[in-house]
Amino acid sequence: NMEHKWDEAYGYLFGLSSDPSDPLATLGEDDFLNKYLGRVEGDEDFAGIAEEIFDAFKLGRAAIVAGEYDVRDEQAQIIREKLSIVIAVRAVYYLQSAKNVLGQATPDYGAAFHDLSEAYGFIFSLQFTRVPNSSSPYLTKTDVDGFLSQLEAGNGLWDVTPETLDNITNDIASKFDFTIEEAAN
Which end of the chain, C or N, has fewer beta carbons within 10 A? Predict the structure, then answer.
């Protein structure tokens, strides 16, 4: 059962790779979280994160088979930490992308709403991230609900302001070890 759960988690990230023997070679394909991991990996500020996650999955799986549960737990912590970063980076990226689109003289609302919708999903996911070596989230459900309420205020996404997007972005980035500039490019 433990092996099954580990393999299932691996599958959400790498399981649909067109090259199962080397899923990092096809990183960023449009499948599950792999797409977003590929985008974060493609940002020089986060280069190497995909291999760290992949290596942690491999070593953790081998540790399960060998009954080395301390090693498994260490690898699980690495996976949690790195995937939490991926989720936060993409939340910040999409918030800032939306802000930039909305700041144009003639905003492309389709593009802005795409970015805001992606951001909404990643913000919602932040409550499920975990601070390394703890069971505490980087941002609580209350924090996340507060961010989402700001996005939904007034007439919803139609009324969101660049200031609101910056405030949410600042709050998210302050919980992680990266800058807005690093995540927004």
Answer: N
